[in-house]
Structures are given as structure tokens and as C-alpha cells.
Design a protein that fits this description.
Length: 397
């Protein structure tokens, strides 16, 4: 058997989208699909947002890429906007979420080792997390399915149960440099951390001079109804990894940090050939133009409340399928009684509804943030028809 031209690392389905129209994708056969997956929480402005398209077109015709050896007026503008909007004092731009988390890991270690505390390198992370697919980010996650074929892992990570503050405290040792945590676990099952847990991590970091780094790659950039999810916990992190929605579909990520946290990130310590290129910066600015305002965020919260309320009412009709609804903002999960991938396929192939599976038997809903009531109505029409016609798989013998 010969290998395919595209390396066969994805279990690609038969749906082959060729065009996007607002909150729908159109396949090769012309069929329209309601997109409540949004490129896995990426296309937060949908697929045909004029502001985003126009900014990318204009920048592509002006200047796409230059070396980071030169000054970057485009990067400076976007970085300043992010600094003004957040806790951060400084920003490093990347091409992806994994790279943003890599930068966060390096920032945490450099914070201590810059002043000679070379023994401070270990980062406490949390089980069922997903931080990316690089060697460092799979090592930061405890999932065997991500580790297989890639041993040995990189040392320097200690795993604790998610939302277990006592476990996090007990894991602190002489080599501990900081914590890395998703405020809302995405791949792990759309599981928001508790208020007590997030407050406790912040307090432990302060008490032991550790850095609190947050992976907001999926839950950041207006997805949860605030610009970053940690704002809803009332805590101030030291480092945040951001990506996905930040470019609205164009590859861009960012590592945000306080001046104190970034003290070790000096000239020569980090870099990226494409990171912060003018085209990516234009996309990021267009996204901020759209989402970084109180009116848009309030609309996200209102839409999320309507969607969640209807979901909680809906799942009672199918107790054999669904258990509960959880999440924050327009990052919602329906906990199922069995593995969700069969329903994901059924909804896609038979009802033209795109959703995503997540861990802990969770059906993940991460639609574009620009959905309106007509899309919510269409979603429930399709979900209802799909649930009614779905044959629940028999449990394994």
C-alpha cells in the first residue's frame, strides 16, 4: 500500500469543504453545513467576515513577510493593543497555539534560570490537558495516546489531577518553576476550573515565587464572553498562551507576559522566522477590531446564555444520550452517556451539522461568535432530528 501525498496522520472524513459563507461551510457537492465547530474554535468571525478578509487582502498586497531583524510597526501595533487590553506588559508572536505554549514554558523556566536558579525548571501541569503536539507540549500533557511513538519525553513536568488544589500544593518541590493550566479544559471535555482552584493556584504561585501560566489557546479571545477566560475568575496570571481565534482563521498565536515574568526572555533567547509577520498582524488587528469591545462581548454572553438554556432543556428529552451541559460562554460541552464520535459523524453526514468530539464523552460546541438566533434555531432543528434518529451504540462486551 502506498502512502498518500498528505501524510496520513488525520482520520479525514468524506466531507470536503470548498467555501465558507458566514456560519456555514459548503462542500464539493454544494451542500451547506451549519458550522458549530468553527475550525475547532478558530473561525470566531465565521467564514466570510468582510473586515477580516479586507485586512488580509490589503496587507497581502502591501507587505506579507520580512525578517524579525527589522523593526515591526505592524507587530508593535498589535502588541500594544493586547497589552492595553490585558494584564500583559509584553507579547511574543507565534504561528500556532503549540508555539505559544512552548514560549510560555520557556518563559517560566527562564524567569528562574535568568538569575542562576538553574534547579527551578519543573512545571506542574494537569491531567487530561491538551497543550499542543510539539515534543515539549506533549510532554506537558499526561495523555498516553499523545506520547505513543515519541518516547523519550522531555523531562521537567509533573502531572496533577485537574481542579485538585491540594494535589497541586503537594506537588510543589525544590525544582518547581510554575504551573501551566487551561482555565477551561478543551480537548479534556470542556471542563471549567473551579473558582477555588484558580484562586488557590495564584496564591500558591505568589507564596512560592512561582509563575502561573495559562493556556488560553482555545478559551481565549472572546470565546467565553470575556476577552480572556481568566478575567471571569478575577485573577491575574503571569503568562498566557493565546492563538486559535486570535487570527480568525489566519495562523497566529501569542505569548503574553508581565514584565517580571519575561525578565529572562532577552535578546537571543527565543525567535521565530514567521512569527509576527505583517499578514498575521493584520488578521489579528481585524479580529480585535471586531471582538475587543464591551458590546461584542456582551452579545457573546447573551447568545451563550440562550444556547445553554435551550441545551439544558433539550437534553432532558434524551436521557439515554445526554447527561449534562458545561462550559463557559460559546465554549460548551454536552456530557454524553457514551463516546460522542458516533453522534458527531451522524450529525455531520445525515443532518449537515458540524460539531467536535472532546474527552470525557463530551460533544463540543464551539460555533463562530457571530451566530444569531437563526443559527441557534437551525442548530436545534438539526440536533433534535439527529438525536431522534441516532442509534445509541451498544456498550462493549
Amino acid at each position: 500500500m502506498s502512502i498518500t501525498p498528505l501524510m496520513p496522520v488525520y482520520p479525514r472524513c468524506g466531507f470536503r469543504p470548498v467555501r465558507g459563507d458566514h456560519c456555514h461551510l459548503i462542500g464539493e457537492d454544494g451542500q451547506r453545513y451549519l458550522d458549530f465547530a468553527a475550525g475547532i474554535a478558530v473561525n470566531l468571525l465565521g467564514h466570510s467576515h468582510e473586515g477580516l478578509i479586507g485586512a488580509i487582502q490589503h496587507q497581502a498586497a502591501t507587505l506579507m513577510h520580512v525578517s524579525n531583524m527589522y523593526g515591526s510597526p505592524q507587530g508593535e501595533r498589535l502588541a500594544q493593543r493586547l497589552v492595553d487590553l490585558t494584564f500583559a506588559d509584553t507579547v511574543f508572536f507565534t504561528n500556532s497555539g503549540a508555539e505559544a505554549v512552548e514560549c510560555a514554558i520557556k518563559t517560566v523556566r527562564a524567569y528562574h534560570q535568568h538569575v542562576g536558579n538553574d534547579h527551578k525548571f519543573e512545571i506542574i501541569t494537569f491531567k487530561n490537558a491538551f497543550h499542543g503536539r510539539t515534543m515539549a507540549t506533549i510532554s506537558a500533557s499526561n495523555q498516553e495516546k499523545m506520547h505513543k511513538s515519541f518516547y523519550p519525553l522531555l523531562p521537567g513536568f509533573k502531572y496533577v489531577e485537574f481542579d485538585d488544589l491540594a494535589g497541586a500544593k503537594a506537588a510543589i518541590g525544590p525544582n518547581t518553576a510554575g504551573f501551566l493550566v487551561e482555565p477551561v479544559q478543551g480537548e479534556g471535555g470542556i471542563r471549567p476550573a473551579s473558582q477555588e482552584f484558580m484562586n488557590g493556584l495564584r496564591a500558591l504561585a505568589d507564596e512560592h515565587d512561582l509563575l502561573l501560566a495559562l493556556d488560553e489557546v482555545q478559551c481565549g479571545v472572546a470565546r467565553t464572553g470575556t476577552f480572556y477566560a481568566h478575567e471571569q475568575y478575577g485573577i491575574v496570571p503571569d503568562v498566557v498562551a493565546s492563538a486559535k481565534g486570535l487570527g480568525g482563521g489566519f495562523p497566529v498565536g501569542a505569548c503574553l507576559a508581565t514584565e517580571k515574568a519575561a525578565r529572562g526572555m532577552v535578546i537571543g533567547t527565543h525567535g521565530s522566522t514567521y512569527g509576527g509577520n505583517p499578514l498575521a498582524m493584520a488578521a489579528g488587528e481585524a479580529v480585535l477590531d471586531a471582538v475587543a469591545n464591551d458590546e461584542f462581548l456582551a452579545e457573546v454572553r447573551a447568545k451563550a446564555e440562550r444556547l445553554r438554556g435551550r441545551l439544558e432543556q433539550f437534553i432532558g428529552n434524551y436521557p439515554e444520550l445526554f447527561e449534562s451541559v458545561r462550559g463557559m460562554g460559546l465554549m460548551l460541552g454536552i456530557k454524553m452517556k457514551s463516546e460522542p464520535r458516533g453522534l458527531v459523524v451522524h450529525l455531520r453526514d445525515n443532518h449537515q451539522l458540524l460539531t467536535v468530539a472532546a474527552g470525557d464523552n463530551t460533544l463540543r460546541l464551539v460555533p463562530p461568535l457571530v451566530i444569531d438566533d437563526s443559527h441557534i434555531d437551525e442548530f436545534f432543528d438539526k440536533l433534535s432530528a439527529g438525536a431522534a434518529s441516532y442509534a445509541v451504540p451498544e456498550p462493549a462486551a
